[in-house]
Amino acid sequence: MHRFDCNIPGDTFRRELNLDGDRPLIGKIGVIRGWKGHDCFLEAIPLVLRKIPAARFVIAGAGPGFDEIRQKVKTRGLELTVAMLGHREDVPQILAALDVMALASTAGEGTPQVIPQAFAMKTPVVATRAGEMPVVLGEGERGILVQMNDAPGLAQGILDTLENPGAARERSEKAYQYCRDNLTVETMMDKTIAVYADVLKSRS
């Protein structure tokens, strides 16, 4: 997690996209496969644009569904609005540039890596109620939760984040502290070692 420092600037990545500082940037980061919810994300984009036409979107990641999602971006006329980035190594810089990080998964999630990464970067999160997301997001204390397969709900979560920056910052600060207290490698190793210690103690 040491790569993910909330003091990293996002300026370089925004310049890569030719974005000025006032344009909201919403991103989805992760492997592109069916249950990751990229279709739902694409359906949410026009709903966000109706209220915030200046918003721009990025999809970072490769995977078996990359070509299909890229074709859907083109078919829906979103090429000037959505940047398909493919695999990227500069995820901290991308997260630093985002105003919202969206997770639209429909199944299969425990705690995806991008969630603690976003927490560590103080990037506001909107996520579906897949897997452990309600627990990790503190039932809405650390990010906005929406139903799975609900494009209007996802769009509204994004809009609520953009239109209420004070509340978004408060959730992000709570998420950052939760990450420091519970999701660092050091913390998880300490907890694992404690479990082994308890087992050994019970056998002695």
Summarize the structure.
This protein is α/β, with parallel strands linked by helices. The chain is built from 9 helices and 6 strands.
The CATH superfamily is identified as Glycogen Phosphorylase B
Which runs of at least 5 residues are low in confidence (pLDDT < 50)?
Answer: 185-201
Specify the structural class.
Answer: alpha/beta
What's the total helix number? 9
User: Any idea what the radius of gyration is?
Assistant: 18 Å
Percent helix, as a range, is 40-55%
Number of strands: 6
The CATH architecture term is 3-Layer(aba) Sandwich
- Look up the CATH topology: Rossmann fold
Mean pLDDT: 89
Q: Major beta sheet, specifics?
A: 6 strands, parallel
Number of domains: 1
User: Regarding CATH, which class?
Assistant: Alpha Beta
Strand content: 5-15%
The best one-word shape is globular
Please report the distance between the alpha carbons of the first and last residues: 36 Å
Helix-strand string: HEHEHEHEHEHEHHH
Across the major sheet, the strand order is 3-2-1-4-5-6
Mind explaining what this structure looks like?
- With 204 residues, the chain is α/β, with parallel strands linked by helices.
- The chain has one domain: Rossmann fold.
- The chain has helices at 11-16, 38-51, 66-75, 91-97, 114-121, 133-136, 151-163, 165-183, 185-203, and strands at 25-29, 56-60, 82-86, 100-103, 125-128, 144-146.
- A six-stranded parallel β-sheet has the order 3-2-1-4-5-6, sandwiched between helices.
- Strand 5 (125-128), helix 6 (133-136) and strand 6 form a beta-alpha-beta unit.
- Helix 2 (38-51) crosses helix 7 and helix 5 packs across helix 8.
- It is globular, with a radius of gyration of 18 Å.
